[in-house]
Every structure is written in structure tokens, then in C-alpha cells.
Amino acid sequence: MFWVVIVLLFLSYPHFLSAQNSQRLDSLYAAQKRLDRQIAVLSQARDSAKIEKDNKYAELQLINRQVALSEAKLSGLSAQMAELEAQISTSSAVIASLEADMVKIKEQYGKLMVVTYKALSRKNTSFYILSSKSISQGYQRMQYFKAIQQMQNSQLKLMQRTKVFLAKKQLQLQLQKVEKENVVVTERMERAKVISLKTEQKVLYDKLKADEAKLAKQLQTSINERAKLMQEINKELDRIRLAKNDRIKKAKKEEVDVINKLNKDFASNKGKFPWPIPMPNASITRRFGRQTLPGSNSEIDVQGIDLMTKPGQPVRAIFGGVVESVMTIPGQGKMVIISHGTYYTVFANLATVNVKAKDKVNELGNIGTARTDPGSGETKVYFQLNQDKAAMDPELWLEKKS
Question: Which residues are 361's β-sheet partners?
């Protein structure tokens, strides 16, 4: 009976292990899908950028990001391969153990059948029970034969269960091997794409280096535009904060309580806010923080994120609030600033705006559409998040991309 319990425990363990492995693999597949969607957005953006042949610098930025995402995908595919190899190894080990257990179970069952045959070879069970010297002895003999019958049934059921489980594991192993082959093919194709992209990247960079004056001009233009945008945003935020501070000084306790509640509600949603552009319709092409511009030694301090998207893409509020400012920045489209207590969200490089100052907006409310730069062919939105004067990394506040 002890043997039966051990095998039953063994049969249940792989289910738990398989579930854990499946979760890890599902997570890797989900990450690959996210990267695929971002790469698709960048490919579309590059196609748009190629319409304007004069700005190769913009295309170089896009291809740099595309290479980075493709390499991340390759890394994910390698992880998938390693996970599948581990699963195949585990499945093979389980199958080998099950086959060995089947041999032992059959041996045990055979021995039990021999014992039963010898005990009952001359007379049936009723004879032994009826020939008992006492009722107590008859009852004990009856329990003995009943126990033998139960053991036979248990061993038979265990053999059947083990056979079924073994067949399932063998099928699972075949599916895992097919899945691994598919990943191998995908990885091979993706590696070829990365090589092709890097070739394009080098050709494009060499063309830009051949005309260093033009490259320097485009780099400087990009730096100037970014600096101008940061200057306008900070200037407008300062104006809004000063006006709000004056209002708070004169405000009643109830009004101050409303602002404090807004701050608390906003802060409590950190990591849960929806994206200004619903995924997978956008890809981050420039992240928060100090960074070097591609193809140069020039550094810029980025206080938000750039979201590459498709022309005419709607842009939405991430939380309820009040529109504090709507303005146009020459050469960079329109800008909207929304306050959420002493937190602010900034949306720049918009083509159209659907709100005006003092409007109340709800979470996911449409505030405008993304602008396509006529010079580069890029369609992107700049998004910034501030707590009072401090700019914060928006990716830490937005929900994880699905």
C-alpha cells in the first residue's frame, strides 16, 4: 500500500511543476508579443519617415530603437528556447521514471496474483470462510480475502492511471519538441532581420557621416527643439503653480481638502495609470532622464517620454483633472497641461486639441490627436508628469504594457 501512495504522489507532482513552467513560458510569450507590437509601430513610423528623404537623422533614431527592440526580442527568444529545453528535459525524466515505475507496479501486481492463485488454487473463498472454527475466524478470513481483492483492484487502477499519464507526458513531450522547433525557426528569422537592420543602420549612419555638416545641423536642430519645448513647459508650469498657490492661500478649508484628496488619489494610483496612447498603438522612442543623442556626443535632459504612433492617433487623459493650459509652440504643435491637485500631466506635439482651459476632464477623456512632423514624417507625442516642480519618470506611474 505504501508503494501505491508514493506513486500517486509522484503522479501529482509533475502537474504542479508543469503549471510553474507554463507560467514562465506564457510570461516570455507575452513579452515577445509586446515587443512585436512596438517593432510594428516603429516599422510603420520608418515607412512614414522615408517619405521625407532630407531628414535621415530622424530615420536613424527610429532604426536605432528598432535594432534595440529586435535585440531584446532575440534575447527573449533565447530565454524561451532555454525554458522549452528545460521542460523537455523534465518531461523526458518524468517519462523515464514512469516507465520504470510501470515495470515495478507490474512486478508487484504479478506477485500479488501469484499469492492469490496459490491461496485459492484448490478451493474458493467461501469454502475457507465457511470452514472456519469460529465466527471470529470466519470474519478475519473474509477481511483478509477482501483486503487482497482491494489490493488487486488498487494495483490495477494504478497501472491504468500510470499508463494514461505516461501517454499524456509522451504527447506533451512531442508538442514541446514541435514548439521548440518553431522557436528555433523564429529565432533564426529574427536574427536575419537584426543583421539586415544593422546593415541599414550602418549605411544610413555612413551617409550621415559623409555629410557631417548636415548631420551636425540636424543634431543641433533636434537639441534646440527639445530645449525650446522644455523651456516652454517649465515656464508654463511655473505660471500655473504660482496662480494655484495664490488661489490656495485664499481658498477655504473645503477647497484645500479637495486638493489634498486629489493628491492622495493620484499618488495611490502609481503604477496603475492608463497610457496616454493605448497600447499597442505606440512605442517609446525616447525615455526619461539624461541621455546622449544617437550619432553624437551631445547630451540632453529629457523630463518625459516620446511616444511614436500612427498619424491621427487620439491622445487621452490618464486621470481626472482640470485643463490648466492650452497653447501652441511654434514648430512643435499644440500643448495641453492638466492639473490633478499638485500633480500635472503634460501632452505636447499635438495636431489638434479637443479641450480648453478650465475644462474638467475624466480619465481616458480624449484631449486631442498626435501630430506628424512635416519635416521628418514622424508622428509622436511628448508626455511629461510632474509633482509640483519635480519631473518624474512616467513609466513608473503608468501601468505595465500588455
Answer: 321
